[in-house]
């Protein structure tokens, strides 16, 4: 979301409000015309987990958004009357849960209930699959929808419209059902390049949804979704940042503590908002470079509960196991390649919280008024000195982690992949937890190296990484990534680039900027740059561990095959 403001006591200024709904909370932040954060706030979201099923409530999410927006305005000392721009049928919710609880009407992205449906869809070999890495993921919408139709028939018959969460938020704010090219292309198999002829239109407008492949929906058993000109999944689409309807409705404005009529822009998925908030965050020397290919050498890591790996290209690149190519799904006129790891922050939390030493270390961290990650990082530094090692990574020479605890999204695209920890002993000390934590960080970084190498082998020329999200604030996490991948990592100047990306959409919706690209260049800014170690021993060490990392999955396939044969 975004906002512009002015008051009688001061010269007219612009203030942009960004809203991000993540897995565990809704966040809001206000930015000035230079993209500097004025104030932010967050509000928790309830989540239900039952095996492979992960659900939320749209009502709860909206209440959390409202609370976060009000608190952010208060912290930034921006009055509700100052906020002029907000970006990013009051039907009853329908349950998507086995429980039948109507509150639980949101299937969370990380829900893996639809693995079987995804496998059936992929066996169709539909040409449309070429545009999502040759296979849909159970985290995408078609398999989830097919699961609901096959398992919750009463709910299926009751649903009036199916929406991506970010589109629903825009709809809830404006009453306009226009869908985003970002959500429909990246999650619903919509073919965004059907709108290439509209990219240079002088006036932003919603477009008739001509990118649906009706044969695909019929073939996978969801032909009823094309009825009424695709009324249930989207009759019209728009480029991100397009102003929706008549802006904020009176009802939504009252709930948010804002003013009716504020322009509301077509949304982005949260990770893609992070890409928009970061990808032009380069040093001034590079920012002056007007080469349209320069942006194609960068990959954005949006590191939170999961990690998304976003890279763009001028031509479409078909990369097996990596989502895309998605036209104009993040940066207008560029094809997006989207890699990912389904559990990164979630995996680190799992590894730490499941350990016998976790509670004791959490108490120590609280007494020192630092985070548990900061305490673990300090412990690793001390252990390195005590063992007289020349670099911290060498602590894990006997511990290796394959981080596929929630399947492998990219580049193997195997939702049935399992996590592996090699090197366990009976040791349950805090030092052993620190080693396991570091080995997990390294495993995540080796996974990113695999994605980068795979993308470059299929046409990309990535040589610089930009990172944002909660994990990017962890210095060991970032340094291990730089050392393992061998590329510099640029951190953004602002601490909340996902919110900035959402706010940029609002800046575009208000016509403050003529295009998303212009707004990105104006509001993105680089902060610290983390360089890989120049010590050749570090590279040699990580090359050896990376080889072991790759072998862990190959061994898993061998074991899987052996057991399948034994049971056949």
From TrEMBL:
Any keyword Transferase? yes
Ranges of residues in domain Carbohydrate kinase FGGY N-terminal? 16-277
Q: Which UniProt keywords apply?
A: Kinase, Transferase
Q: List each copy of the Carbohydrate kinase FGGY C-terminal domain by range.
A: 300-509
Record bears the keyword Membrane? no
Q: Name one GO molecular function term.
A: phosphotransferase activity, alcohol group as acceptor
Which BP terms in the Gene Ontology apply to this protein? carbohydrate metabolic process
What InterPro entries does the annotation carry? Answer: ATPase_NBD, Carb_kinase_FGGY, FGGY_C, FGGY_N, FGGY_RbtK-like
Pfam hit, one: FGGY_C
Domain of life, per the record?
Answer: Eukaryota
Q: Which PANTHER family match?
A: FGGY CARBOHYDRATE KINASE DOMAIN-CONTAINING PROTEIN, RIBULOKINASE
Give the matching NCBIfam families: 5C_CHO_kinase (TIGR01315)
Which family does the UniProt entry place this protein in? Answer: Belongs to the FGGY kinase family.
This protein is called FGGY carbohydrate kinase domain-containing protein
What organism is this sequence from? Glycine max (Soybean)
